[in-house]
Design the sequence.
């Protein structure tokens, strides 16, 4: 709770420091979108005559903050479940959301690993600690658990799992060599040169990895930002960072 209050106070003070003449769009987004949203925000800011502020964490953490009254204008989740959770609480309208991107689930190793394992994921995960995001609250962890259960590996590896607050923590553990492997997103591979791809899960081993976005309240600049995310310029940026973009119809 204290952390949430600190975030709200910081954002309020930041808005005051920037002056009242420039509209602000506050985007609460899944941690896995940090790098792509940095570039998307910079591109959008060139023409919107507004400031874009990002608050990044696990989707579950952000959804709970929004429920508690955090002044978000846009919420971008790493799965449909947390978006539906807010819709059920009537904080967002069920039909006021759209999927803006898709992703894939992979296993990575530190680049310092001299020998690449075989393509058998059971062999790959048979030794050492495995970093995943916490499946209780983080979509990346939930997808990882689904994939491991589908392959009959969950019970075999559960005692060696290292659970992170978000997927970027799992990524950093593998990058530093603190764990043998990590289960993260394909887009994480693009932004972390200290890891390498070891295995890609089939898409039918888990629920589809999608990023729904929705407006919270009424902010015309936020509406413009959501529309921008379906533009050709935004799609090129999504693809650059390893996402599959979803074009507006």
Sequence:
């Amino acid at each position: 709770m204290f952390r949430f209050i600190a975030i709200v106070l910081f954002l309020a003070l930041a808005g005051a420091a920037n002056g009242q003449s420039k509209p602000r769009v506050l985007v609460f987004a899944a941690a896995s979108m940090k790098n792509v949203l940095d570039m998307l925000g910079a591109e959008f800011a060139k023409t919107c005559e507004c400031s874009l502020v990002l608050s990044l964490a696990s989707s579950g953490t952000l959804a709970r903050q929004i429920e508690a009254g955090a002044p978000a204008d846009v919420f971008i989740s790493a799965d449909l479940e947390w978006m539906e959770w807010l819709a059920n609480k009537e904080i967002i309208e069920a039909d006021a959301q759209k999927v803006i991107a898709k992703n894939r689930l992979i296993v990575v190793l530190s680049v310092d690993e001299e020998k690449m394992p075989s393509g058998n994921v059971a062999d790959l995960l048979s030794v050492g600690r495995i970093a995943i995001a916490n499946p209780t609250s983080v979509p990346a962890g939930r997808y990882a658990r689904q994939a491991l259960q589908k392959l009959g590996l969950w019970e075999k590896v559960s005692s060696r799992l290292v659970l992170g607050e978000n997927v970027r923590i799992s990524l950093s553990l593998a990058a530093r060599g603190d764990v043998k492997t990590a289960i993260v997103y394909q887009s994480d591979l693009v932004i972390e040169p200290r890891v390498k791809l070891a295995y890609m899960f089939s898409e039918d081993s888990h629920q589809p990895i999608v990023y729904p976005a929705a407006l919270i309240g009424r902010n015309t600049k936020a509406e413009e930002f959501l529309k921008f995310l379906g533009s050709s310029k935004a799609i090129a940026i999504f693809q650059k960072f390893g996402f599959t973009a979803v074009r507006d119809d």
Q: What stands out?
A: The chain has two domains: 2-102+209-245, 105-205.
